[in-house]
Structure prediction request, 456 residues.
Amino acid sequence: MPGLPTHTDDLALAEERRLATLRRVALLDTPAEEAFDRLTRLACLILDVPVALVSLVDADRQFFKSCVGLPEPWASTRETPLSHSFCQHTVASARPLVIEDAREHPLVRENLAIPDLNVIAYAGIPLITSDGHVLGSFCAIDGKPRTWSAQDLTVLTELAGSAMTIIELRASTLLLAETQVDRDRIGGQLRQAEERERAAEQRRVDDLLDVSERLQRGLLPVRPATAGSADVFTFYRPGARTLLLGGDFFDVLERDGTLHFILADVAGHGPEAAALAVALRAAWAALHQREVSPLESLEQLNRIAMRERPGETMFVTALAGAYDHGTRELTLATAGHPAPLMLTPASASDDVILTPGPPIGLFDEARWAQTTVVLAPGSAVMAYTDGLIEGRAEPGSMARLGTTGIVAEVERLIAGQDISDTLLNELYITATRHHGARLEDDVAMLIVRPSGAAAG
Prediction:
């Protein structure tokens, strides 16, 4: 019967390892969470649809981890039987499902979601774990026929990726909570333990640190290192102060010969900061499916942050930029963020003059401005979060390394070498050496270097 699972669908939905993974992420029958609701609200806002869902498909039902715009009683029960599920087909195929008019679609035209939930147009992106199991769907729904554009599907894909990141971060955080090591207690035990036991405990601590770094990397995009207009080099390390989740994020994408980028820092750490960072990065990527200037991107992100921030004390500093390959013009706008460094093969400086603006998420009527400069042949721009400059100038010192110290170290490091990701790695190691230990705060860095054709 159309709209109900086929035998093949049944096998896919009931696949034992998929269901075990669904249980492991521990989301079924849990309360709504703001981290997911932010993403579905963004989908409704950007795509202009009444309903967006994060749907997890069990063997005999679908559970909505987020259900913005869903009518009653479904909004309260937050689940439906599979007789009312389009998402089951997204899960069974492990591919996006795009339906313009469900009443005419052979797969779902008899599905009870059409009369009972007014599901007419549907676009769903599978939620796939890093090991390949499909848990459900991030979907948008309209109550009238709709032609979904390529841009609509790109936005949904970005938001689905962010939802999947949160799911895996949440699952890994639960695992960490179950196995978290009290390092003070371990220190005492290790002093009394045999060498073999000491090594085993140390490996356990190292594993926890490795998991925390992988968690944060999940917040960062996987983008090609080279675009048509520029080479892009990125770097991220979590801070020692919060080895779990921080709020630094960046993203880079190219559109019509212009490379757009953002580097931002959510004030705060932990799940709230990480969730806001995920939502804002997804929103930034979605906004740039059309032509948006750095100034406009800050304005749009501020509107979203003012509505979605978990508390009045949480704000975001950001540097947004756009590099035009044809004109070599670099346009920048800052929201309370450290000024970028302008790099040449022999020098570094922070003397680019940007109009200061407040951080994102503090004021409804905040205003920013953008500045345009021309990148000389062989030059590049480097952005960074303040965790890089807030470390100590020397071990045990109260003085901070600061911008002056970083400029001096960059000049020393680029002498005789190309501007590349090697510079970022060596710069972090140098800052750590100055500090005398792992830097306390998260550090994110990004270099945009015009390609050979642009650099002349």
User: Anything to note?
Assistant: Residues 150-179 form the longest helix (30 residues). The chain has a mean pLDDT of 83. DSSP finds 14 helices and 16 strands in the chain. Residues 182-213 form one domain.
